[in-house]
User: Which sequence fits this backbone?
Protein backbone atom coordinates (compact mmCIF):
# COMPACT_ATOMS: atom_id res chain seq x y z
CA UNK A 1 0.00 0.00 0.00
CA UNK A 2 1.30 3.40 -0.95
CA UNK A 3 1.47 5.90 1.90
CA UNK A 4 -0.31 9.23 1.67
CA UNK A 5 0.68 12.75 2.65
CA UNK A 6 -0.93 13.98 5.86
CA UNK A 7 -2.49 17.46 5.70
CA UNK A 8 -0.24 18.79 8.45
CA UNK A 9 2.86 17.65 6.55
CA UNK A 10 2.30 20.40 3.99
CA UNK A 11 3.03 23.11 6.54
CA UNK A 12 5.57 21.02 8.48
CA UNK A 13 7.59 20.23 5.35
CA UNK A 14 7.97 23.93 4.57
CA UNK A 15 9.13 24.56 8.13
CA UNK A 16 11.58 21.66 7.99
CA UNK A 17 11.39 18.47 5.92
CA UNK A 18 13.17 16.55 8.68
CA UNK A 19 10.49 17.46 11.26
CA UNK A 20 8.09 15.02 9.59
CA UNK A 21 10.43 12.13 10.34
CA UNK A 22 10.84 13.19 13.98
CA UNK A 23 7.10 13.71 14.36
CA UNK A 24 6.58 10.11 13.27
CA UNK A 25 9.13 8.94 15.85
CA UNK A 26 6.98 10.48 18.58
CA UNK A 27 3.75 8.90 17.30
CA UNK A 28 2.12 7.00 20.12
CA UNK A 29 4.01 8.83 22.86
CA UNK A 30 2.34 11.16 25.31
CA UNK A 31 2.31 14.57 23.61
CA UNK A 32 3.21 16.41 26.82
CA UNK A 33 6.75 15.05 26.46
CA UNK A 34 7.50 16.92 23.27
CA UNK A 35 4.81 19.53 22.52
CA UNK A 36 5.57 23.09 23.45
CA UNK A 37 3.13 25.84 24.45
CA UNK A 38 2.08 26.83 20.90
CA UNK A 39 1.34 23.20 19.94
CA UNK A 40 -0.66 22.63 23.13
CA UNK A 41 -2.65 25.84 22.56
CA UNK A 42 -3.38 24.75 18.99
CA UNK A 43 -4.65 21.37 20.17
CA UNK A 44 -6.90 23.04 22.76
CA UNK A 45 -8.24 25.44 20.12
CA UNK A 46 -9.46 22.47 18.08
CA UNK A 47 -11.26 20.77 20.98
CA UNK A 48 -14.74 21.92 19.86
CA UNK A 49 -14.04 20.44 16.43
CA UNK A 50 -12.57 17.20 17.76
CA UNK A 51 -15.46 16.80 20.23
CA UNK A 52 -17.97 17.79 17.53
CA UNK A 53 -19.48 20.51 19.73
CA UNK A 54 -18.73 23.45 17.42
CA UNK A 55 -22.17 23.23 15.77
CA UNK A 56 -25.28 21.10 16.02
CA UNK A 57 -26.38 21.75 12.42
CA UNK A 58 -26.57 18.58 10.36
CA UNK A 59 -25.21 20.39 7.29
CA UNK A 60 -21.99 21.42 9.04
CA UNK A 61 -19.19 18.87 8.82
CA UNK A 62 -16.65 19.00 11.65
CA UNK A 63 -13.43 17.07 12.03
CA UNK A 64 -14.20 14.56 9.31
CA UNK A 65 -11.53 12.56 7.50
CA UNK A 66 -10.98 13.62 3.90
CA UNK A 67 -8.81 12.25 1.11
CA UNK A 68 -7.67 13.66 -2.21
CA UNK A 69 -7.06 10.88 -4.69
CA UNK A 70 -5.34 13.20 -7.17
CA UNK A 71 -2.78 14.49 -4.64
CA UNK A 72 -2.73 11.46 -2.34
CA UNK A 73 -3.33 13.66 0.71
CA UNK A 74 -5.45 12.77 3.75
CA UNK A 75 -6.42 14.32 7.04
CA UNK A 76 -9.20 16.01 8.92
CA UNK A 77 -10.93 19.24 8.04
CA UNK A 78 -12.01 21.68 10.71
CA UNK A 79 -15.38 22.97 9.47
CA UNK A 80 -17.25 22.73 6.19
CA UNK A 81 -20.68 24.31 5.81
CA UNK A 82 -22.37 22.25 3.11
CA UNK A 83 -25.16 24.80 2.58
CA UNK A 84 -22.90 27.80 1.91
CA UNK A 85 -19.93 25.84 0.55
CA UNK A 86 -17.62 27.50 3.06
CA UNK A 87 -14.50 25.65 4.22
CA UNK A 88 -12.98 27.03 7.44
CA UNK A 89 -9.60 26.19 8.91
CA UNK A 90 -9.29 27.37 12.52
CA UNK A 91 -5.99 28.53 14.01
CA UNK A 92 -5.42 29.55 17.63
CA UNK A 93 -3.70 32.80 16.66
CA UNK A 94 -2.57 34.14 13.31
CA UNK A 95 0.28 36.58 13.01
CA UNK A 96 0.88 35.90 9.33
CA UNK A 97 -0.82 33.71 6.74
CA UNK A 98 1.95 31.27 5.86
CA UNK A 99 1.96 29.45 2.53
CA UNK A 100 1.66 26.20 4.48
CA UNK A 101 -1.70 27.31 5.88
CA UNK A 102 -2.93 27.96 2.36
CA UNK A 103 -1.62 24.64 1.08
CA UNK A 104 -3.41 22.81 3.90
CA UNK A 105 -6.76 24.35 2.94
CA UNK A 106 -6.04 23.68 -0.74
CA UNK A 107 -5.60 20.01 0.09
CA UNK A 108 -8.84 20.06 2.07
CA UNK A 109 -10.55 21.82 -0.84
CA UNK A 110 -9.43 19.16 -3.34
CA UNK A 111 -10.38 16.34 -0.98
CA UNK A 112 -13.87 17.73 -0.43
CA UNK A 113 -14.30 18.27 -4.17
CA UNK A 114 -13.16 14.66 -4.79
CA UNK A 115 -15.79 13.58 -2.28
CA UNK A 116 -18.52 15.35 -4.26
CA UNK A 117 -18.91 18.52 -2.20
CA UNK A 118 -19.00 21.99 -3.72
CA UNK A 119 -16.48 24.29 -2.03
CA UNK A 120 -17.20 27.91 -2.96
CA UNK A 121 -15.27 29.77 -0.30
CA UNK A 122 -12.22 29.20 1.90
CA UNK A 123 -11.38 31.09 5.10
CA UNK A 124 -8.76 30.73 7.77
CA UNK A 125 -10.16 31.78 11.13
CA UNK A 126 -8.05 33.35 13.90
CA UNK A 127 -9.74 32.16 17.09
CA UNK A 128 -7.91 34.58 19.42
CA UNK A 129 -8.96 37.64 17.45
CA UNK A 130 -12.20 36.23 16.01
CA UNK A 131 -11.11 37.27 12.54
CA UNK A 132 -11.52 35.52 9.19
CA UNK A 133 -8.94 35.66 6.43
CA UNK A 134 -10.41 34.84 3.01
CA UNK A 135 -8.26 32.57 0.84
CA UNK A 136 -8.73 32.43 -2.92
CA UNK A 137 -9.73 29.01 -4.20
CA UNK A 138 -6.97 27.34 -6.25
CA UNK A 139 -8.49 28.22 -9.64
CA UNK A 140 -8.44 31.92 -8.64
CA UNK A 141 -4.75 32.00 -7.65
CA UNK A 142 -2.59 30.24 -10.22
CA UNK A 143 0.68 31.18 -8.52
CA UNK A 144 -0.29 29.59 -5.19
CA UNK A 145 -1.84 26.60 -6.93
CA UNK A 146 1.42 25.92 -8.81
CA UNK A 147 3.41 26.32 -5.57
CA UNK A 148 1.03 23.82 -3.93
CA UNK A 149 1.61 21.25 -6.68
CA UNK A 150 5.38 21.83 -6.52
CA UNK A 151 5.34 21.25 -2.75
CA UNK A 152 3.39 18.00 -3.10
CA UNK A 153 5.93 16.84 -5.68
CA UNK A 154 8.86 17.80 -3.39
CA UNK A 155 7.35 15.87 -0.47
CA UNK A 156 6.88 12.81 -2.65
CA UNK A 157 10.51 12.94 -3.78
CA UNK A 158 12.09 13.76 -0.41
CA UNK A 159 14.39 11.25 1.25
CA UNK A 160 15.76 11.85 4.74
CA UNK A 161 18.97 10.03 3.89
CA UNK A 162 19.69 11.39 0.41
CA UNK A 163 18.02 14.80 0.13
CA UNK A 164 20.19 17.82 0.76
CA UNK A 165 19.36 19.69 3.95
CA UNK A 166 20.59 23.12 4.97
CA UNK A 167 19.73 24.10 8.58
CA UNK A 168 18.16 27.53 9.13
CA UNK A 169 19.05 29.01 12.54
CA UNK A 170 15.73 30.86 12.97
CA UNK A 171 13.78 27.66 12.37
CA UNK A 172 16.07 25.28 14.27
CA UNK A 173 15.81 27.43 17.40
CA UNK A 174 12.01 27.11 17.34
CA UNK A 175 11.92 23.42 16.40
CA UNK A 176 10.52 21.07 19.04
CA UNK A 177 12.65 18.28 17.55
CA UNK A 178 16.02 20.08 17.59
CA UNK A 179 17.31 17.85 20.41
CA UNK A 180 16.89 14.81 18.11
CA UNK A 181 18.22 16.32 14.92
CA UNK A 182 21.82 15.68 13.97
CA UNK A 183 21.66 18.55 11.44
CA UNK A 184 20.25 21.16 13.84
CA UNK A 185 22.33 24.19 14.62
CA UNK A 186 20.99 24.34 18.16
Assistant:
Amino acid sequence: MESYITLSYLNDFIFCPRSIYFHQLYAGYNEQFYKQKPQVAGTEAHSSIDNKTYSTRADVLMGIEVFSDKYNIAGKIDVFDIRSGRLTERKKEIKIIYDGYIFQVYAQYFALMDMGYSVKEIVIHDISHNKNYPIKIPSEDEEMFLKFEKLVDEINKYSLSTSKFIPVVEKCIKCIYSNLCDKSLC
